Predict the 3D structure of the following.
Amino acid sequence: MDVSPEHLVEQARERFQLQDYYGAIHLLEEVVATGRAFADAHHLLGVSYSLVGQPDAALGQLDRALALNPRYVEALVHRAIVLNELGRETEADAAFRRAAQMGGEPREGFAAHLAAKLANQHAALGDAYLEAGGMTQALAQYQAALTLGPAFHDLRYKLGRLLLEAGRALDARDQFEIIVRARPNNVDAAAMLGLACYLAGDGLAAKAVWEACRDRRPEDPRVEAYLAMLARNDTAGLGAGPAAARQPGPGAPDRGGRKKRS
């Protein structure tokens, strides 16, 4: 069974909370090996390496996290700590200064570190609502989290998938487009963008996205399955996607669940 990177990272966080750093490393290395890791995965792997006394490996992972998200304040702080451990004090001071500068930039009226903390709390509350069957409330909490932490693309990916489940394909498309713009090599988000386009009735856009995914990851069976599905629908005259046949009247919800403007 193909376990998603998000699920593996969640399991790694659980191991980390239990101070099983080697267990966390094992799970996170599995994520990184797929080439599908988010900045959060590299950050947590870097911190785990640091805590088991492998500062060089830690630094490499923290650098990769910052390459994906240069404004990742926690990664900057931990990078500074590791540099200090390695005796690279000048670089450590520079990293601390950069983190302090970013930490002072407010988001929604809150200092960045407080905004990030609040975003995580909103996300945790969203998870709790979702587990209890409250999809509407979960969506609201995830959206609040992303207002405070717009660079939390792992959460944005989760939100996009949940929006698809809720039948809001156009809103999901918006979320996946943000991820793909920020991380053009994220084939998972791009594949989901194609699915959102297809479910919103834009078969041409879905085809373009999936063909680009196939060029980047030709061995991905999911992308091949999507393209095969699209080809079958083209043959049957349904190439615009499943929503193409619906023509909502004035004021009715459109194909992605949004209400049409009159």
The CA atoms of residues 180 and 186 lie 6 Å apart. DSSP finds 13 helices and no strands in the chain. The first helix runs from residue 5 to 17.
